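# nightly structure sweep
# worker-07 picked up a monomer target from the shared queue
# config: single-sequence mode, recycle default, output format = structure tokens
# input follows
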Amino acid sequence: MPVFGAIDFDEHEQISFFHDRKTGLKAIIAIHNTRRGPALGGCRMWPYKDEQDALTDVLRLSKGMTYKAALANLPYGGGKMVIIGDPHHDKAPALFRAVGRCVNQFHGQFITGEDMGTSPKDMAYVRETTTHVLGLPGGVGDPSPYTAVGVYESIRAAVAYRLKKESLEGLKIAVQGLGHVGYHLCKLLHKAGVELVVTDIDDTLVQKAVKAFAATAVAPDDIYKADVDVFSPCALGAIINDHTIPQFKCKMIVGSANNQLENHEHGEILARMKILYGPDYVVNAGGLIDLSYDGPNYNRDVVLKHAQGIYDTLLDIFHRAEKLKLSTSEAADHLAEERFKM
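# output follows
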């Protein structure tokens, strides 16, 4: 299993592999860059098909956190932790206490929180063995609503730039994935008068959205060819690829999923197709912004204002891309690198 030679290795500062025999924990922590401050990144639990798949994910996610923190103007670098396991069957308090012991070995240079497959309750067990964890019950808790706010503001920015419209009313938007972020986003979009098309691998969530938001349900494989103004991917990454791109009928792609582009070339292809792409690590920064304020002086109004600022950041990136004749993903990368490579 190559590490330094892995395609997603990008001058990462540290990659650590952990195994705890008693709990069965198998985990990887990757620290990408700490020039702006300690690496901050969630703890994801997922039934990866193999260790290479987990390594690829943690390398890509940790790098994305560096760029995300930089463009959100946060004093943090990027890191991530992934646990190889099924969150529906393999969770146990002892396992998350072992997670805390792993995090503690970085002496504050890595700070974690909840992510896909984990929850604030899980982080409470992590807190029993380390202080370097955010998003605990009774504190910030689940940051998903603020991630959804950031996606909503990003959609507003894309619509303002591409369609020259301030209102979303009457637009048709497809949301892929109806977990915490996707469902909160649907709630905001429905309130704004959007016509929703939705999908998820869990049909219970789909029917819930259909009932609550008068949404139109489509099969998971049909969401890419939905005839909509905006496609909002809020599930897994790498969904913009050679197979899906020819199916797109949307004008804009703006969603919360991490690493939506299978590779950088796909961002350039979208630009040539005149599909406006909101770089994912800009769009989905609301949850990270929320976690960064965790503490005794936490103020929801301050967090909300910061998350709403993603609107202006994304507009800046769209204009930079147009001026420099770059794809929006390239323009975002350049702006972030200006901030963390100083």
